[in-house]
Amino acid sequence: MPDPVMIDLQTIENLRSLNPGDNDEFLREIAAIFSEDTPLRIAELDQSLASGDPPRFTRAAHSIKGSSANWGALALRDVEEKLEYLAPTPGMANAASLVAEIKVEFDRVEAALTKLTAR
User: Fold this and answer.
1) pLDDT for the residue numbered 5
2) What is the structure's pLDDT at 84?
């Protein structure tokens, strides 16, 4: 089975169409927000996993899943979806390995967004 698309270019074009003619200024602005917020949500995943707080874990996973979907970051969204549904399970089995995967995927997405929004 092929890997999910890292960044869906149609989603990027849809975002660009929200503010046409701005030389991607809007895209860069929202990319910066994504790049600043996502590491905070990832830290919440780590903290809530360590403290055994499934509701907080689920909220952080859901937040990242939503913002990833908004960007068309499909692989990151898919891992987050697994995490979101894993949180209610006893001991949040396998969550640590998925959080590690999230970190790798986020780095890949961030690099791709940097290329897409470069002037």
Assistant:
1) 58
2) 74
Residue 83 and residue 102: Cα distance in Å, rounded? Answer: 9
CATH 1.20.120.160 corresponds to the domain 9-13+23-117: yes
Q: C-alpha distances in angstroms, 77 versus 20, 53, 65, 68, 70? A: 26, 21, 5, 5, 9
State how far the Cα of 82 lies from the Cα of 72, in Å rounded to an integer: 17
**Amino acid 89: pLDDT:** 65
Look up the pTM and report it.
0.85
Closest CA to 44 of 31, 30, 63: 63
Domain spans in the chain, listed from the N-terminal domain onward: 9-13+23-117
